[in-house]
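Q: I'm a student working through a structural biology exercise. My instructor gave each of us a protein and asked us to get a predicted structure, then write a short paragraph describing it. Mine is SNX27 protein. I'm not confident about reading structure output yet, so if you can add a plain explanation after the tokens, that would really help. Here is the sequence I was given:
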Amino acid sequence: VFNIYMAGRHLCSRRYREFDTLHANLKREFPDFNFPRLPGKKLFTLSEQQLDQRRRGLELYLEKVCAVRVIGESETMQEFLAAGDLDEADGSSEVELKILLPDKNLCIVSVCRSDNADAVFKAVVSKLHLEDVADYFYLFETVEYNFERKLLPQELPHNIYIQNYSTATATCILLKKWLFTISREMMLTSNAAALKYLFWQAVDDVNKGIVKTGDKLYELKALREAENALEYLKTVRYLEGFSEVVFPHCACDSRRDGHVVAIIGIEAFKLQACKEDGTPEAQVIEFNWKDVKSYQVDEEGMSFNFEYNRQGKKPRLVKIFTPYFNFMNDCFDRIYDEQQWET
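A: Happy to help. First, here is the predicted structure for SNX27 protein. I'll explain a few features afterward.
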């Protein structure tokens, strides 16, 4: 049995014959692709060194084949990578998951491959001793445009983990702040671990340009280098973009030409006009949360829809065609939950 790793992640454990079957199936499915050769089959017993060489040869085979996106994402390949190890199809086999923390350290937890996001998050909270502040963090996945989306509680992090085997980083699963209300965040800074993670996430948001630093750039740089977390957060939390989620640009039915960038924060929900390539334009429409009449996900239409009240006019329905409609819905739910804290 060969334990196969890519980018430091354990993907699967497979016998040689399973690779042989995969190779044959892929050649039938993609006859025009010039597949690399599998390491040759040996009938005699292999030494430890020869076994390791063969394992590495099988890893190289997968790396080369999966580098072709259409093959890597094919049903045949995904089933091979995601199926339970050997005869363990019940999902009870233990695997190690690497979770990237805001300070760029890794948290490694042992979980069952069938554990959902809630179960994996509980394991992370336990390992990091974050029980007191667990309500304000959750697991996210790094996806396109340097964007991170919150996992749904029922999603399976191990499946997401292995589907991203070709990425250069050690993991695509992160621990991040899940909180919009600044006054509540200020209360968390008395917890040493929370303070550290809030600080490094703020640094990352500044580096990504999510937070607009204006004339505070050099001040923030000095505070970051001194790792003065409290003063850094005091300065950054009043800048534009802090504690906001900025979605990748996408189409919207209220805009014939071009796209919109949806921005969600505790003060308002904003739609920034942009060109189809994401280049920002001047127009920004701002919706007060009290004016949002209803919202829902349309899974068939792949959109997030919300209806808002207009003074002296009928309410208007807006459809945002984003692949992250579930995350957008989660953000709306969270905003309204947090608003109840203040009442």
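A: Here are two points you could use in your paragraph. The chain has four domains: 2-82, 94-177, 182-236, 245-341. The first helix runs from residue 16 to 29. It's a good idea to check both against the output above yourself.
Q: Great, thank you!
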